[in-house]
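Fold these two proteins, one after the other.
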Amino acid sequence: MATQSKMEPLQAEVDESDQSFFRLLVNGPSEDMCCRPSLISLLPKLFLPGDWNDGLVALDAKGRPHFISLNQTQFPSVKNTWHETFVDYVDLSIGRRLRTGIYEAKCPLFEDDVVVKFARFHWEIQYIENETTAYQWISGHTTTTATTTPIAPRFLGHLTEIGRDLQACRGLLSRLHDLGVRHGDTNRFNFLIRDSKAILIDFDTAKKCDDRDLLLPELDSLTACFEDSSGRGGEGPL
């Protein structure tokens, strides 16, 4: 996680007498952490460097907030991604809240406003998994015809987080660097991702390297590689 203070709270599960959970957008990728609700304004001062996405904040004996654990957690995701359309959360303009986890939104793929529903925290994933599968069962019965009305709204696609995939890829690249190897071509097409787990391919430019000053720029440039829309490294003419 970068040591910067630009943050946008995404979701909160607040309990004034117990643990509270926050999801934050930190300089792009989505990060998950748990902390006391009164600490939200102090978090920029608390952020620590390192490859982590799940932190627990508590008060010390003098009442000062500090991290008591930092982890790289493999959060669950929906496995039954049967629809061909995928939309990244950061590409949406979130509008009016309809219910918990359900919002009106504008999406660049669709002219009209859409309704998005998502799991705010990992314990809600199974509910989204069940609903996604149910929409697959009825996918042929969600449009109006001359003789019938739809059973349910049309399923437009899966909501994803590039940030979640980026976390998996950063962890993978860090493991490669720990072996003293620089990949040399970390474009997004060289990461194969399934169920939020990543593997690397195309090692034809890899080199042995124990110099952290050379390895760190490769890791730090990963976000830019994932956001690159030029198609560099993608499939070319055969």
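Now the second one:
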Amino acid sequence: MSAVWRALSIQALNNGRCISLRHAVFNRESTMSTDQEKPTESSITVKLSTHLKPEHLEVVNESFMHNVPRGSETHFKVVVVSKDFEGIPLIKRHRIINELLRDELAGGVHALSIIAKSPSQWETGGKAVEPSPACRGGFGK
């Protein structure tokens, strides 16, 4: 599957809104990955894009930063910018995303970092996301 096809199919799925798929198209070794190889990542992308109609969406598999087997889908960061978040407190935004991804969280997803913003917050914040900290071994080491 080509990166262009993947980006176009996700964009079409989201009614033309811009969706960034950093790390969703290429795995750590910069080889092409398919939906079958990354089913959890693909499921997260589809659910968030379908239900929240985001203006910007990033689904980042951060599992490689942790002590898990190569190719794992256990640690994710999502950046969701949606008009649906206008006037909604941050805790409620997180609850919405957690509810949408309840099956993934009940399955193999161990950690989910959520950045949920309205379009105005995204513009004001400079459209930047800080990198996640390095893994501390799970016990705060």
